[in-house]
Design a protein that fits this description.
By secondary structure, this protein is α/β, with parallel strands linked by helices. It has a single domain, classed as 3-Layer(aba) Sandwich (Rossmann fold). The chain has a five-stranded parallel sheet, with helices on both faces. Helix 3 packs parallel to helix 4. It is globular and about 40 Å long. The two termini are 16 Å apart.
């Protein structure tokens, strides 16, 4: 099983950027936790971080017939990313949206997600645990889909 993990803009600065909101874990720490859990679950990960929406879209397109699911933290793209929305909507596999912080409890402009309407679920506000919860969920959903 192959799961995509897409990290959006500025997530390369985890641990440095507003640690009181996003935590002190670095992106390398988050990815290491995901890789360890993926091994336990017998799953391969394809991990991509980009500050450019097009790279995230290209990764989805390139894996449309190769991936079994995806975890996407669109970061700042969450609130305006119509092209990413459309790319996710075209995917035949389950997609889980993740956010480290609880975007519903933050500034008003963060409350609207362009991505949420086209994903299977959203996990937010758990810090790095949002990612591991999402990995467990997307693997379970993909395995159930395989059985059908």
């Amino acid at each position: 099983m192959r799961i995509l993990v897409l990290h959006g803009p500025n997530l390369n600065l985890l641990g440095r950027r507003e640690p009181h909101i996003y935590g002190k874990e670095t992106l390398a720490d988050v990815n290491a936790r995901l890789e360890a859990l993926a091994r336990e679950l017998g799953t391969e990960l394809v991990i991509v971080q980009s500050n450019h929406e097009g790279v995230l879209i290209d990764t989805l397109h390139a894996n449309i017939d190769k991936a079994d699911g995806a975890i996407v933290n669109p970061a700042g793209i969450t609130h305006y990313g119509v092209p990413l929305h459309d790319a996710i909507a075209a995917m035949p596999f389950p997609v889980i949206e993740v956010h480290l912080s609880n975007i519903a409890a933050r500034e008003e402009w963060r409350h609207r997600s362009m991505i949420s309407p086209v994903v299977d679920g959203t996990i937010q506000g758990l810090g790095w645990r949002s990612y591991t919860a999402a990995l467990r969920a997307v693997v379970e959903i993909a395995r159930e889909k395989e059985k059908r």
